[in-house]
Structures are given as C-alpha cells and as structure tokens.
Amino acid sequence: MARHRNIRTMNYDEEYDGYDDVYGHSVEDDYASSPSMQHFLYDRSQEHQMSAYMQSDIPEEDELVSDESKNGNDVGAPSRIPPLGELEQAQLYSCLDLLRDRMGDALSEQAGIDAILACNFDAEKALDQLLKTSVASSLSKSTKIITKSKPAPAIQVEKIRGSEVRDGKTPVKVVSAKKVVATGFSLPPTSTDASSSAYRQPAKQESAVEETSRQLGCLRTPGATPRSTSPADREAIATPKSQARTRESRVDVASEYVKERSGTKALLNLVVVGHVDAGKSTLMGHMLFRLGQVSSKQMHKYEQESKKLGKQSFMYAWVLDETGEERSRGITMDVAQSQFETESKSITLLDAPGHRDFIPNMIFGAAQADVALLVVDATTGEFETGFESGGQTREHALLVRSLGVSQLGVVVNKLDMVGWSRDRFNEIVARLGAFLKQAGYKEQDVFYVPVSGLTGENLTVLDEPKLTEWYSGPTLLQAIDKFRPPERPLNRPARLVISDIFKSVGGSSGCCLAGRLESGMMQTGDKLLIMPLNEMIQIKNIAINEVSKGSCFAGDQVVLTVSGADLSDVSLGSVLCDPSQPVKVTSRIQARIVIFNIDIPITTGYPVVIHYQSLSEAATISKLIAQIHKSTGEVVRKRPRCLTKQTSGLVEIEISRPICMELYKDYRELGRFMIRANGTTIAAGLVTGIL
C-alpha cells in the first residue's frame, strides 16, 4: 500500500464525511459552511446570461454630451473662432496664453475666446470678466457645502459708498489687480523703512477678486514652484496667521535696539585687505598692542618665539596669525577676528588673507564687513607688483566694492622704508585714486593715511619729524573712527549665515553656531529654522565678544549655543531663519553680473565657481538672457552669443546643489555673490530672480 493517497481519484465528499462539525462550520451562523469542490466547477447544464453581470442604466454617449452642453463645458467640441486676420489671431492666442498662465485648468478655451473678443483683445479686462463669472459660479455651487461643513474664511468686499440695499443684496466694488511691472534690468534701491513696511503689511494692490479666486483654487500662487519653494515655505503658507506671527508683530525691534544699545558705541565690522606681504597682520597686531588688547607679557612671548624661528619682524603678526602653519609660512591663511574700540566706535576686526590661493577666505571675510582698509606697500617695486595685472591690490579693491563695501581707507604702509617720502606717497595716492574712482568708490568715502606697521608710527600717535613736515592729517585710529556705520535691517526677518560650528565648552549640552546676524534680531529662547536642513533649533545662549547677552541685532558677530541640532548634519553656509519667513532654497537663479577683465568670453555652458558668503559651489552659466548697460541697466542686446570683458549682462546660473539664497532687493547682504574661474575672479553678481 502506498504511503500517499491517490489524490486524482479521491472523492472529497466521501473522504471528509463526518467532519462537517469541524470544517466549514461557523460558530456564529449554523447555516454557513465553507465552499466545496462543486462551487468551483463550471456546470454547462446551467445557462448563464451575461446580462446578469451588467448594469442596466448605463448612459449613452449622446446623453453625456447633452449633459455637458447643458453645463456649458463642451470639452470635446472644437473651439469656435470667427474669421480673423493674422494680426488678430496672434493677439487672440497671446491673450489666451496669458489667461491660461493665470487661471490654469479652470479656464474653458471657448469662454476665454469669447471674453477676449468681447473685450477687444484686452487681456486684463477679459481676465476680470472671467474671474467675476468663475467666482460667482463657484460661490453659488459651494454655498450648500460651506453651510454644512466648517465655515470658510470670510471674503471681504468693499461696499460702494452711498449705495442702497435692494432686494437684500448689497452692491460691491471689484478692484482690478494692477501690478507694477519693472522695466529693464535696473535694481532700484529699497530703503529699510519701505522694506520693513512691506514686510509687516500685506500688499495693497491685492484685489478682492484675485484673493477670492485664490481661496477657491482658481489661480496659482505666483512663484510657488517646486524648485524655489522649500518644505518650510509650504508649511509657512499653510500655517494660520494667528500661529505664523512674525517677530515684528510681537516685538518692536527698533525700540528694543534703542533700549539696549542707546548708551553703547556704534558697531562697525572692519575688514583689512591687500596684496600678500603688504604688512596687514603686522599693522593691525601692532595697533592692538598699542590699544592694550595684547598684554606686554604676551607680546614678549611672541618676540622670543619669533626669534627662535628667525622671524622677529613677524612678532606683531602673530597676534592675529595664531596657527602653527601660518606662523611657519609667514602668511595669513584664514580670516582672523579681534575687537578694539575707538572714541565712538566698537570695531570688529577681520584680518583677511592676501595670498591669491586664499581668495575664497578673503571673499568670506569681505562679505561680513561694513567698511574696509586697503593696505599697500610703499616700497619701490612692491606697490607696482601688487597694483599691476596679477596682483591682489586691484582684485581685492574690486572684490570689496562688489560685495557692498562703499567706504574704504587706503593705508600706505612701510613708508619709513623710503624715508617718509612725500613724492612717493602722492604718486601712490594719484594712481590708486584714479583706479578706485573707476571701480565705483566716491572720493569723499576714501581716505589715505601714511603709516609704518613695524615701528608703529601714525597708528595711534603722530610724532615722526620727517612725516610731520608735510602730513598733518589724522592717525589711523582717528581715521577709522570717522567711518559711518551703515543702516541695519532691523525690521526684516532674522537671517544668520553659519560660518563656524563647534562643540560647546563648559560641559553644557548642545552645539555652538557662529556667524554674523544679517537682519532682524534674536533672543535667548527663540526657536529658529536651519535651512536647507529644515530642522528646528532653540537658542540657549547668545555670546558677543565672549560675553553672554540676552539678545543680538543685525550686524552683530555672535556665537549661539543651540539645542536640537546635530553637529554632523549642520554644514557651513546653512542659514538660521525665522520659521514664519524662511529663507529660499534653490539651485537655479537669475542674476545681473558685471564682468571684470577676462581673457576668455563667457558663453552658455561656461563652468564657474560661485562664492556666496562662506560657500563655494560649482555652477554653470546655463543661459545668456541679455547684455545690458553697466550704468543705466538698459538692454543693449538680447540673447547675446557671449559676454566679453568690462560688460554687464543678465544670465541664468545652474548651481550644483540647492543652497540658501535671497533676492538682492529684499536682502542686500544676502543677494550678492562672486564668480571665479581658473583661479581668478571673473565677475560679481546680484540675485534678481530665484527660479
């Protein structure tokens, strides 16, 4: 006997007879049983009718067409266009494209054609007519739904003065949306007050019809593209106004600034630039020693250590050059930061590197500065080397001006090496003056001071007889005190670009984020958004010049101790911003660029490197839109084949990865960038559009 049963000839009903009480029996229903084999076998003796499986009330195509024609949405029928001339047809299709861009899928093509013809090819009037019709129909259709569900946001309309109520209806006035269109490519300056008022209040040109249509989904929100809208933007749009209140609605930033800083000196961020070996670090290190920022004991230590390396003349430079590599090579490699005070100013000193290999670090330091000192070497031959083509004197002056610094002090250093020669000083002033005027500096915003960084002459005291014979101007410290502090965008949303990240000391949890607060204010306990990481953090402590503060304002160099952020996730160049008004994240921008003295023209597909704040990102010039006049902004040529030296143009730039950027008209400090290629700076740019 086989171990296995013959399954093919088995009668399942007989085999499992008596097991009905176990299999197929339902506890809840005694008449329910599992299906047997007969349920799954097709019985040809029974006549199956296919009509039993079909619906009897399927509407015919004619009925569907008639229903749609009754509703006025004849989708399948072609649009009826009366006979028109070529010019009128072009006007018709142009107006149709404009209406599709504004209304999207809500636009019926036949209704659009009828409205355009009725309004005599006036797109704005046709749009207003269609919006009135669509809003009225949408409101009438959704009245029952709105009354049953939660109340929709109230649509505010303006009553016509002097009108009477007839039949229970109040006439309303519909204000047409008239937006101001900017012509050309000029960037008009926006004052802080104007920008802050525009930020605190909604735009007055928003029409009631457009607002109603947007609530009903008839219009798309302009500029809300997946590329330019970050997750934080979408969250902010969906947040109710009662929850998305900005800082300006809770705190009057201007009054808080006056309250906390009224009795203090004005803050000024000063960057020191110039050709390599011009004596920048020695000059500023000696000044810090003269002002008491460095003790005599520490200075004696630097002197002894520099003697051992055979570099005794670098002892003052070691005040700012702290790393071993900088001291061994004798050059500044990174931006050194220090503080000192003048009679009326509190100065944050930024000592930028002069070597051409560290231009990106210099750009980062200049981007944080309000004013600048350009140090030149008066020694015969050295000034010419730095000033001629290939030297950093010209490049640094152009970079600083392109990054928004308009006040410049020229420090003629090492004048003692040429016997305090007045002729040499006048020669340098004449050559630099002509160049700086061409670069965009005003004569009243530039001053010249002769000094000696090694001996300390004319830094804080003027007592050299050979110099006093022909120079009676201010000392370097007095000249720095005459710099005017810029206006701070206090009432703008908070923005801080992270320039350094390190662990907090003292055993406290969290990490420290350093950077310059570009706009707005921050307070201890504030919750901020890190972009493009899109994570929330909370401020635990604010330190300015290693002193804990309760708040900080635009222009402050701060160190924030925060919680809620992981050091491994946060990167340099990330932006701390107000969650209700987050910074934009994009990888494609439109920019107005000014091209410097280049050898190879810029064409479509030209690979470049974008230097933006502390970031350096690979990018490509993806499109040349127009060549424009450098002064007036008028279009010289549309779609040029290339952009040559000393020209200006409007271009589109594709960045290798999404980064945080702002428009120049909204945030001047965050709307500037530099373009470099093959180790040289080729252009400066202003962000005019985020695509």
Automatic annotation (TrEMBL):
Keyword Coiled coil in annotation: no
GO cellular component: cytoplasm
Subcellular localization: Cytoplasm
InterPro entries assigned to the protein according to its UniProt record, in alphabetical order: GTP-eEF1A_C (IPR054696), HBS1-like_N (IPR015033), HBS1-like_N_sf (IPR037189), P-loop_NTPase (IPR027417), T_Tr_GTP-bd_dom (IPR000795), TRAFAC_GTPase_members (IPR050100), Transl_B-barrel_sf (IPR009000), Transl_elong_EF1A/Init_IF2_C (IPR009001)
Family matches, as CDD domains: EF1_alpha (cd01883), HBS1-like_II (cd16267), HBS1_C_III (cd04093)
Keyword presence, Thylakoid: no
Keywords: Cytoplasm, GTP-binding, Hydrolase, Nucleotide-binding, Phosphoprotein, Protein biosynthesis, Translation regulation
Any Gene Ontology biological process: regulation of translation
Family listed: Belongs to the TRAFAC class translation factor GTPase superfamily. Classic translation factor GTPase family. EF-Tu/EF-1A subfamily.
Protein name: HBS1-like protein
Lineage, broadest ranks: Eukaryota, Metazoa, Ecdysozoa, Arthropoda, Crustacea
